[in-house]
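=== Structure Prediction Worksheet ===
Name of assembly: unnamed complex
Input type: mixed (protein and possibly other molecules)
Chain count: two
Listed entries:
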Amino acid sequence: MPGTRPPLTRALSPWTYLLRNPRRIGPVFAIQALVTCLLVLIITPTNAFEATARANIRPLEVFTIVRPRVRKGFTDELLALLDANPQQSARVEAKMLWLRMPMIVGEGVAPMIALPETFWAQFLQKVGSRLIDGAMPEPGSDGAVLHEAVVRARGLKIGDQFGKLVDPQDAAPGRFTLVGVLGGEARIGLADHAYASEPLFVLARVPPFQVIYAKEGGKTASDEYLRAAKHAERLGEEEAAFDVIDVTYMEGRIASMLANLPLIIGFITFSVGIVVALVISLLNVIAFQVRVDEFGLYLALGHQRWRLVRKLAIETAVVAIAAWAVGLALGLGGVALYRSLWLDPRGILMSVVDMRPLLFSLCVPVLSTLTGAVALGRRLQRMDPVAVIQRRGAE
Amino acid sequence: MSDLLLKAGDVSLEYLDGTRRVCAVDRVSLEVRRGEFVGLVGPSGSGKSSLLFLLAGLRAPTSGQVELLGRILPRKPDRSAHLRRRHVGFLFQEPFLVPYLDVRENALGHATDPAAAERMERLAEAVGMTAMLGERPHRLSGGERQRASLLRALAAAPDLVLADEPTANLDQPTGHAVMDALRAQTQEAGLVVVTHDPGMLEDADRILFLRDGRLEQA
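=== Predicted Assembly ===
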């Protein structure tokens, strides 16, 4: 209602102070923005392992792998049990190999499947892969085609060789020659089954696998059948007769590998948050020293103490939130740059927009605001306006 | 409405200075009526400022009580804050202006009265500060700063104005100019001025002399 409002309340609003004293709030703002930015830069890349691992297991959305647990491998009885799966459309014997794939920290693995040549086209079509460079391997040869991301990550080019005989650190035994590059969503390599069944691979204990294709729309039911069948009593085994490697199984493996990551990140972030909050509250108290006269005056003139505490809390919170937003933007920009310049060329996937750094870094403004407001509130609660007036008068 | 604005009844203020008990104000009684100009003089350390803080409710009396507009001031200074803000104007020895606010904002930022802006413009014209209303304190001279704090003290048309050595840091002509302006603008209010310079109290209705916390002479 015009004419009833106090004439110039904005003069004492937190915004007036913040907008007119950029130099005073600058250090506090810069520290909080920088710490938020660093947290985003540190936390976000930790999703690369999970993102890449999930991409690597995506082919399992199309087929399921069955791996025997018994020494005898796939007996007729076991194969009969698999073939009794009503949702199975095809079963192909395969060898599964794993390739070393450098990550940001440590290494991951990317799958390479060795199939009989007659099943290559069907396999590539089912997983949505296509040859984008080079050629498919000659049957019986050591040739292999790999996904373009794996090729980039390993720094390979067509004609290069890989495998344990070439690189002792590699997870795949033997020696393979890269003859082609695959594109598509599924990060999988393909080699010839005949070559992967040679004595060298038998000695390296590369077990036979069965690739199970489900009928259209029957993948879930097929996997359920296999999981139930692996404990089938009629096999006479005390333990499971085989492992079912499907998306659920691999997701469980990934989850167990990353189980402690949120705890570690949370601990680091919270520790950093506390240290930053203490530094911020110290800086706030130092900055408040030059405002003692101002607040002594407010108290003397009759401003309510709690309103002044609220004003200080709002000022602290606004700086903290603005610094967080700026730090977040800088961090996201940095992460995007990091991904395009460093991760993409190495075939490592990373999600730039990740809720974890956003949520974890929130502890910086929250803790800073709390400690800052409490420290300043305590100072204000103890402030005696008469002492301020007398000291100023005596100067 | 009663003309009696302020009534102090036998108020004392004692405090400990180390182990020594100091009686800054000793059983002082006084009344201030609307339109009255009361001067408080006395040597340094006589308790003038302490008495002013008691009258404003910024200090709780050790004994006795202070009534402002018929209401006894609570013992806790924070509880009388709303009364101070609405009814009392302050003028200190130091202008105490907020450095990042201009003169207009300093004068009106504390006012709760919607008519304060218009009143302040008139006051600024009366004390020659109209051209300075948009200036920040660091661009003002000492006299201009004190006049700016005068605008702040009077913008809300307080019933009572308490001034503690308002001319102490000013030269004689500027001090007189500030006092003239103060007196001219508080004809409807009560005015209590603490000073060690009796020359500034030429227009006072009453001059009270304080020595060792006691009112010796009226």
